[in-house]
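#struct-help
A.M.: can someone run this one for me? Single chain, 377 residues.
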Amino acid sequence: MRVLAFSDVALPEGDGGVERTLAEIYPRIVAPGATRVRLLTMAAPQAPPREVRDGVEIVRARRLDLGSVTGAQTALSWQMWQRASQSAREFRPDLLHAHTLFFHSSLVAAAVARRLRLPLLLTLHIGSTAALPQPHRFATQCYERTLGRVLLRVAQRIICVSDDVRRHALSLGAPPSKLTVIPNGVDLADYQPAPRPPRAVPVALCVGRLIFNKGQRFLLDATARLRDEGAPLRVRFAGDGPAATALRARTRALGLTDRVEFLGHQDNVAALLADADIFVRPSLTDGMSLAVLEALASGLPVVATDVSGTRELIGDGAAGIVVPPASTAELAQALQVLAQDPQRRLRMGARARERALAFDWASVAARTHREMTDVCA
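D.P.: on it. Structure tokens below:
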């Protein structure tokens, strides 16, 4: 089986959830003489146009990065169309695999699938966008109801990373017969609980790309509220992105430079989780957050917004606290409760690890491979 995969960005150029998912799944399904995977992606001109990483062939097209304009992970690439046509001829794929409704590369995959009458497997990584602010919500929902619905029609099979994502796909008109749920995974060996002796000022860690839909600005506002109420807490942001300049400026404007650290891109997230007391995920959109999964596996209590997939991970509240999206007051209250109660943090952290044990990448890869095989049959 030859799988031609599409993603706007891949490791090492990006470190978001989709990129990390691809890096976990594709090497696990590659087998000499059985399954080959070629991944078409976009990159800056200095990146090599072709290489093989962990058995996966990677072909890169030059991209036009629109992140500074949109505030989100957005890019276009006319060269992607050329690379896709060339790969279709020389690689002779049995299956195309695209990711998310919103990637430019997914539209390229759908066009190739229609033109060459090849089966398309589509994985959806994002659920409802109802919590996004205007005008982003209007633009996103217009896209979903036009080009997004085209992608859902062209795909032979659709993988949803959570039950919430499946419900969202149904709301967009996807036939139930096309949909299957395969949750994301976590490396339980890399992410493990660490001793966390109580300290006078607890540390809250937020990991993720610095983009508007991850909601980091609400965490800054909550931190200012906690400061004003005399609650001790330090906040660390790990990640980079188009919103970095605005978030740093907001930190200075709120007078939080002594409480907030921006660590930039970090390769060793497991070490950061081991040195934190609380994990925070203030997202406005998600599907099934890898960052939350890694925090749970690391035995950290989680404070997160109630977006797609997050409540499924945290469960009944024993492993964390779920708050409404964009609610500074409730986010601050949840953080204050955990910051002031180290014993509760320990109890939640133990439960968090238990919940993470149900998720592993080997199972995700095996189930994804079965879907590929079924679509090709």
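A.M.: thanks! The two ends are 10 Å apart (CA to CA).
D.P.: also worth noting: The first strand starts at residue 2 and ends at 6.
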